[in-house]
Each structure stands twice: as structure tokens, then as C-alpha cells.
């Protein structure tokens, strides 16, 4: 019943008359990204059809009776184009929030959404949501529930500070404070240069050295340059457990390098990542190469190959895929 009501609600927004949409939205948007892939774990392989975080969302803003202040909202859901099911759900929550935006005071939002540290990756990752995604060698990319974030206005059309906190919501337990986890970032962005520094404190994320999730303190540095037809990106991250786990402190040190070249409708791209594990003295490496062909401004086909493996462990995953992506909004 809930799934039917959600589908009906989104459909009704699309069908609203234009008079009702005069208030900066709502805008219905999304993308369909489908790939046909061969996934090989070193022992067995299988052909799969994947949806790669395809999504459907509604966003907009409402003018308020206060100068330069507006109410903003967003409700975005992942949709599974391949089989209609995401862990038992037709619609899986992505970034969902409400808040306020002021021209000179900044933006305040609350809900469930990407932390400033996750968002600080910008478009450095050339293989997001595919087998070559940076998440295969880096933790820290978290979408968090019960999070509140303030973002400053953009200074000099380039610089912005973001700060978020998460209340514990565990009455009588260890996590019962007004702000038990923090995430922040400082982002500089122009047409040619993107650079960011971000930090998480006490944020639950994957620690590769531990082989599990734990509360971690994470520092991330990232940058990307667009030089004519070339794109060059780099990211460094250090993450360690906030508290010892059974008397042991675990630490990951990872980096990612990415590059691309645009040739007319073609985009050729590659990236390499490595995570140096402290306690296990192992290394996890990521390699990916691929090509996109643009069919239109919001439509492309692509092919790629990626490999993720451990130096000493048993992990040896490789993926070959071809697919397409269509973006839309109305």
C-alpha cells in the first residue's frame, strides 16, 4: 500500500497544472542507468543486468513572507530498473530533506542525505555507481539519517563551508548527545578548478583494515582540474577508528587518481586507487578504464572494465560492462 501511495504521489506531481508549479517547482527529475555486466570474483563469474543507482526525485522551493528567504525540499528515491526491487523495496531512500535557504545567511537542511565528506568528492570519481567506484578502496561515503546541515553562502562565487551534525537518539545509551557525530567540508569550485578538504568525527563507516563498519575519524583531500579537453583528479584519505576495537586501533590510508579526455562525443577515462591497510599490512587496489559516447546532452552509452583486488587476501573482482544512461527533468 505504501509503495502504491508513493507512486501515486509522484505521478500526481507530474500531472499538476502549470499554475500550481509557478513556485520554483516542484521539479520531477531522475536518471535511468542500466548496464549489462560480467562479474568475475576469481572463482566464478555471472552475467548481470544492473540499475547502478537509477533514481527518481522531486525537489523545489517555496517563497516565504520573509525577504530573501525560501523553503526548500527534496525527496529522492533509488529505483531498480532491472527487477523493480531494491532489498525488498520498490523505492529505496536516497537524499531526503527539508529546510530553508537565505540569499545572504546560507542554507539549513535536515533529514537523510550525503555527509559533507561524501559530497566533497565532487566529480573526481569517473566511475561512480559502477564497478570502478571509489567506494571499493575508500570508506567515508555515507548517506546518514537524522542529520542537520548548515551551508554558508558561496563567497566570491567559489568558496563554501558546510557543517553537519547527527544527534545520538539513543536514550540512556552511549549515543544520547545533541551531536554525537560531525562532518564538515570547505569547497572551492570554479569552471576550471575544484578543490575540497573534509573531515568526519565519530561517523559510522567502513574501515577496510578492520573488515567491518565502525565509528571513524576521517580526513579527505580532493582536487580536480579541467584543462581544455582534459580532466585530472586526485583524492587522499586517512581514516582511523575513533575508539579502539577490542584494544586495537585500525587505520586506512587511501588515494585515488583519475583522468579523462574528451574527443568530440567521446570521453575516454581511467582511474587507479589504493588503500594501504595498517594492521593487516595488506593493500587493496582499484583499476578502471572506460569510454562514454554522448548521444545527446542528457543521454549516453558507455563501456568499462574494472578490477579490485587485495595484495595478500582473496579478493579479486573484475567487471566488464556496457550500458546506457538517460537523465530527465520536468
CATH topology tier name: Porin
CATH class: Mainly Beta
Helices, by number, come to: 2
* Secondary structure tally: strands: 17
InterPro entries: Gram-neg_bact_OMP, Gram_neg_porin_domain, Porin_dom_sf
Signal peptide: 1-22
Membrane topology: Multi-pass membrane protein
Protein name: Porin
Layout of helices and strands, plus pairs?
Layout: H1 2-15, E1 27-40, E2 45-50, E3 55-63, E4 69-79, E5 91-102, E6 106-114, H2 116-119, E7 143-151, E8 159-166, E9 181-189, E10 193-207, E11 212-227, E12 230-241, E13 251-263, E14 266-277, E15 283-296, E16 299-310, E17 316-329
Antiparallel strand pairs: 1-2, 1-3, 1-17, 3-4, 4-5, 5-6, 6-7, 7-8, 8-9, 9-10, 10-11, 11-12, 12-13, 13-14, 14-15, 15-16, 16-17
Compact description:
The protein has 330 residues and is mainly beta. The chain is built from 2 helices and 17 strands.
Description:
With 330 residues, this protein is mainly beta. The chain has one domain (2-329): Porin, CATH 2.40.160.10. Helices cover 5% and strands 59% of the residues. It has two helices and 17 strands. The chain has helices spanning 2-15, 116-119; strands at 27-40, 45-50, 55-63, 69-79, 91-102, 106-114, 143-151, 159-166, 181-189, 193-207, 212-227, 230-241, 251-263, 266-277, 283-296, 299-310, 316-329. A 16-stranded antiparallel beta barrel has the order 1-3-4-5-6-7-8-9-10-11-12-13-14-15-16-17. Strand 14 (266-277) and strand 15 form a beta hairpin. The protein is globular. The two termini are 26 Å apart. Mean pLDDT is 91; it is low at 1-10 and 12-22.
